[in-house]
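Whiteboard transcription, Tuesday session. T.W. wrote the C-alpha cells on the left side:
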C-alpha cells in the first residue's frame, strides 16, 4: 500500500484499485471557496473556521471518521466569481481535494458548479439556496440552504397576511439569490398587495443609498430585501438615519445573525436605536438566543475550545460539518466519490444538533433543508416565532 501511495502522490489513496483524490489511509480533505476578505467576509471568517472546528472535535474525540481525520482546505475568493473559479480549479487540480464543501455565494458558485459536475467532483451543500443548483437534480451535487423561491414565497405570504392592500418595494441582489427570492415574493404576495417599485444591485456593491432613495420616492408601505449583511445594514442605516424612513422590512435569512446589529451600529453614530428592530426574516437553525438548548451549549463549548467567537454563522458552519460527518460515516471505510454520493442519497430526516429543521435527500431530491421558521429582530436579537413552515 505504501508503494501505491507514493506512486500517486500526497493527498491521494487507492480504494478498490482506484485513485481517490483527497483520501489517504489517515485523512480526507475537502475544499471550499469562501469570502475570507471583502464585502461578505463576515460569512467566510465565521463559517469556515466553524466547519474545521467541528471536524477537529470529531478528529480529537472519535479519531476522525473510520480512522481518517477530516480537514477543510479553504480558498479565499473575496466574494468574486472569477476568483472563485480560480480557487476551485486550484483546489481540484493542484491540491487534489476529495470534494468541494459549502462553496459560498450564488454568483460565486455559479462560476464553478458546471466545472465540478463535468469533473466528477462531489459538490456538497453550497451556501446558497438558488434553485438552479438543485433542479434538475445532478448526480454529484447536493444542496443545503432553503430554496430561495420557497423562502421568498413564505416571506411574501407574511406580507400578504400582514400588509393586505398595501404597497411593496423590492431591493434585490442582481443574481439568482435576489431573482429567485423575487419569484417567491411575488408568488407569496399574489394579489393581496401591489409591488410598486423594484431596485437591484450587484453582489460586490455595499453602498445602496441611490437605490434606497428611489424606493422611498415610490412610497411603499413595506420593503422586501434580498441582500447579504453589509449591504443590508448600509441600506437600513441610510433609510433610517439619512432619509428618516421608518418603513417596515422583511429580509432573506442570509442576514439572520447578530453581526447585522453591530454592523448597523458601526455604520452610523447618528442612530438613536437599532435600525434593524422589527425586521422579519427566516431561520432554520437553533438561534443563539435559545440558551440551555443542549446542541447549542455543546456548540459554544466546541467553538470556545478552538478560540472561535460564536455567532449564528458558526452555528450554520457546524450544521454543515455535522451533515458531512454523517455522510462520511454512512459511506464506510472504503471511501470513494461514488460511495459518498450514494451515502448522501440515503439521508432521511437528519436533524443535526443545532438544527430546527430536518434534512432529506433522495435520488431525485437534492434540496436539503426543506422548511423555515419566521424570526423577528427584537432588542438586538433574532427571535424565532410561530411553527416550522415546511415546503
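and on the right, the sequence the group agreed on:
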Amino acid at each position: 500500500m505504501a508503494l501505491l501511495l507514493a506512486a500517486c502522490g500526497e493527498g491521494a489513496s487507492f480504494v478498490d484499485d482506484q485513485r481517490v483524490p483527497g483520501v489517504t489511509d489517515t485523512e480526507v480533505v475537502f475544499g471550499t471557496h469562501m469570502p475570507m476578505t471583502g464585502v461578505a467576509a463576515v460569512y467566510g471568517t465565521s463559517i469556515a473556521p466553524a466547519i474545521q472546528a467541528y471536524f477537529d472535535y470529531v478528529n480529537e474525540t472519535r479519531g476522525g471518521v473510520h480512522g481518517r481525520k477530516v480537514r477543510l482546505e479553504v480558498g479565499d475568493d473575496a466574494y468574486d466569481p472569477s476568483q472563485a473559479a480560480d480557487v476551485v480549479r486550484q483546489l481540484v487540480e493542484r491540491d487534489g481535494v476529495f470534494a468541494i464543501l459549502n462553496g459560498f455565494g450564488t454568483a460565486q458558485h455559479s462560476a464553478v458548479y458546471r466545472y465540478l459536475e463535468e469533473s466528477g467532483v462531489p459538490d456538497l451543500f453550497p451556501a446558497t439556496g438558488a434553485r438552479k443548483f438543485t433542479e434538475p437534480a445532478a448526480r454529484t451535487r447536493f444542496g443545503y440552504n432553503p430554496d430561495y423561491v420557497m423562502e421568498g414565497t413564505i416571506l411574501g405570504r407574511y406580507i400578504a397576511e400582514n400588509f393586505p392592500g398595501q404597497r411593496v418595494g423590492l431591493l434585490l441582489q442582481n443574481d439568482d439569490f435576489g431573482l429567485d427570492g423575487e419569484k417567491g415574493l411575488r408568488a407569496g404576495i399574489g394579489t393581496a398587495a401591489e409591488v410598486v417599485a423594484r431596485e437591484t444591485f450587484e453582489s460586490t456593491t455595499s453602498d445602496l443609498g441611490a437605490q434606497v432613495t428611489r424606493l422611498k420616492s415610490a412610497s411603499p408601505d413595506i420593503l422586501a430585501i434580498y441582500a447579504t449583511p453589509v449591504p443590508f445594514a448600509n441600506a437600513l442605516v441610510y433609510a433610517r438615519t439619512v432619509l428618516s424612513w421608518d418603513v417596515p422590512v422583511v429580509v432573506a435569512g442570509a442576514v439572520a445573525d447578530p453581526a447585522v446589529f453591530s454592523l448597523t451600529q458601526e455604520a452610523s453614530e447618528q442612530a438613536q436605536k437599532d435600525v434593524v428592530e422589527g425586521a422579519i426574516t427566516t431561520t432554520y437553525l437553533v438561534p443563539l438566543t435559545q440558551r440551555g438548548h443542549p446542541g447549542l451549549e455543546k456548540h459554544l463549548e466546541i467553538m470556545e475550545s478552538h478560540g472561535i467567537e460564536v455567532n449564528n454563522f458558526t452555528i450554520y458552519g457546524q450544521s454543515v460539518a455535522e451533515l458531512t460527518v454523517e455522510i462520511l460515516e454512512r459511506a464506510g471505510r472504503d471511501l470513494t466519490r461514488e460511495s459518498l454520493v450514494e451515502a448522501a442519497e440515503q439521508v432521511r430526516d437528519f436533524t443535526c444538533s443545532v438544527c430546527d429543521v430536518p434534512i432529506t435527500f433522495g435520488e431525485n431530491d437534492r434540496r436539503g433543508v426543506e422548511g423555515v421558521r419566521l424570526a423577528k429582530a427584537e432588542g438586538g436579537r433574532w427571535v424565532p416565532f410561530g411553527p416550522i413552515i415546511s415546503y
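Someone added at the bottom: Residues 1-17 have pLDDT under 50 and may be disordered.
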